[in-house]
Amino acid sequence: MTALLPRRGLAQILALIVILAVDRVVSPQFFDLRLQDGRLFGSLIDVLNRGTPVALLSLGMVLVIATRGIDLSVGAVMAICGAIAASLADSHSLPVVLAAALGAGLVCGLWNGFLVAVLGMQPIVATLILMVAGRGIAQLITEGRIVTFSSPDLVWLGNGAILGVPVPIEIALGMLILTGAVVRGSALGLLIEATGGNARASELAGVGTRAMILAVYVWCGVCAALAGVIAAADIMGADANNAGLWLELDAILAVVIGGTSLFGGRFSLVLAVLGALIIQTMNTGILLSGYPPEFNLLVKAVVVLAVLLLQSPKLSGFAGIMARLRRTKP
Amino acid sequence: MTFKALFAASATAALLLALPANAAELTVGFSQIGSESGWRAAETSVSKQEATKRKVNLKIADAQQKQENQIKAIRSFIAQNVDAIFLAPVVSTGWDSVLKEAKEAKIPVVLLDRDIDPSGKDLYLTAVTSDSVHEGAVAGEWLAKTVGDKACNVVELQGTVGASVAANRKKGFDTAIAKHANLKVVRSQTGDFTRAKGKEVMESFIKAEGGGKNICAVYAHNDDMMVGAIQAMKEAGLKPGKDILTVSIDAVPDIFKAMVAGEANATVELTPNMAGPAFDAVAAFKEKGTVPPKWIQTESRLLTAADDPQKEYDSKKGLGY
């Protein structure tokens, strides 16, 4: 457990608690839970449910960033895979639909990984290509329309529940455990961190850095595909123009809030997901608060700044800030 | 490009010489923005239908959301000496010089769906657009009439912050319900014109307003957000269309599907038929010299569950929405 949740997670947990407390103040019924049609219903469930796509994206993104890379294409990959799933949903069974969508995500990841690992392109530029082209591909699949479907199997992925907990939340949790088991249960995580820390030294030490980089982009593509399928299942349709739009930035933000450095070399899966939850807790709080929408982005920016200040090594925590203030007093 | 334009022009000229056209037949060039939304695709297909109905030879140039492509298309239309040019401007400024060229060539220009910067008013024949303030007002008046004297808490799903359409649809609705003290907008938040955000915002409205018990109606600035909101209401165990009234704008096919299912009450149509009135204005101008007004406002039809939503759905589903 210590490997999954290191001591540096304190700032994030503190931030989440503070934001939850603020949400409770702006919306007194925030922690209320009840069962509605066999499904838990309440603002807390909304936070987890709406946070699922970004949480899934951040699971892939955190590994990519650990290798000193970045993947700007995840939002577009979401749109592609959602479009594929929606187009096939009414004519094929769920396993076929999932295989096609996740397969497409895998191919997108392979493409990114090929550009970065084999051709040696800068990750930000290499993935920018798919970010731009991907949305166009998604629009070609949907022909610019919102493709709707009624397949109960796929709808269940977005709106169903097992033991009262919505399916998307369970999928995200499952993916966190799976990813954690694979990268932390073996030396893989260490090798990924080594690749990000110093690719050349790792290469000389016998780490297959190319394979590592290829693998993390593929995983990132698969995670994005899953997020895209869930987003489409949620609204029972694929909206190629808007699905996953700007979510790559939220995923990067989640990873950064989770304390993972953009320079690579170390990462924490749990904290990246916690980062995604922090973002969503704040978004839901803003929606519940009833402030005019013109303030949404401003509030978000201030909170993100505060969270990042909280974990800044120079200002380590409130205690540090207070100590500094006291010291500067004449 | 110049060569291409010259080639196209000479090809058209050759064609015109070979086949003397019917005197009444018009050739119109239409510079369309590109495929930015389902509505835009529907506008293109309706324009083609209207052209066929009137035996107009319509040439459509897709600008892929770039002004430079639109300017090239207009120059090519001028070179082809078309009878009129339709322009759906992607931005509002920067049209002066190319529209002057059209004016010098004595080719009337009609703006569709969007207006351009006021400095160009004498450079086009007329603009066919809808009035988005009026659309909001039609929605507000329907709600006021339907609710009667009952107290009614309305929640509003706004379009993208900063979009003029969103601001106008809000203004029109607010003005219409201001006369009715029993109607009050209790919550208003942006859903970015998308289904996903419409659903997410509606979920939070329901929680913030006592599980939806305090909400009497939802007003959404477009149908897509309403489709998302309807899902949110159903998942919360509410009955949209019955427990909570719905009114939105655009009239896309899926809102009629919801009306057929009894889950939506009303929508205000943003007609995709901007070309029809434009063809008529151009024909009257060419034949009788009638100068149309500078602004032709399209009708904002109110469509409710009583207006045969199944028929509306069938007529709209093939248009590319």
Explained architecture:
The complex is a heterodimer of chains A (330) and B (321). Chain A is mainly α and 330 residues long. Chain A has one domain. Chain A contains 14 helices and 6 strands. In chain A, strand 1 and strand 2 form a beta hairpin. The longest helix of chain A is centred in the last third of the chain and has 27 residues. Chain A starts with 9 loop residues before the first helix and ends with a helix. The N terminus of chain A is likely disordered. Chain B is of the alpha/beta class and 321 residues long. Chain B has 2 domains: 147 residues, Rossmann fold (3-Layer(aba) Sandwich); 154 residues, Rossmann fold, CATH 3.40.50.2300. Helix content of chain B is 45%, strand content 18%. Chain B has 11 helices and 12 strands. Chain B has a 6-stranded parallel sheet, sandwiched between helices. A 6-stranded mixed sheet of chain B has the order 7-6-8-9-10-12, sandwiched between helices. In chain B, strand 9, helix 9 and strand 10 form a beta-alpha-beta unit. In chain B, helix 1 runs parallel beside helix 3, helix 7 crosses helix 8 and helix 9 runs antiparallel to helix 11. About 4% of the residues of chain B have low confidence. Chain B: This is ABC transporter substrate-binding protein. Chain B: It comes from Bradyrhizobium rifense. Chain B: Its main location: other. Chain B: One of its GO terms (cellular component) is cell envelope.
Mean of pLDDT of chain A: 92
CATH class of the largest domain in chain B: Alpha Beta
Q: How many domain modules of chain A?
A: 1
CATH superfamily of the largest domain in chain B: Response regulator
Oligomer: heterodimer
Major pleated sheet of chain A? 2 strands, antiparallel
Order of helices and strands of chain B: HEHEHEHEEHEHEHEHEHEHEEH
Protein name (chain A): ABC transporter permease
GO molecular function (chain A): transmembrane transporter activity
Subcellular location (chain A): Cell membrane
Pfam families (chain A): BPD_transp_2
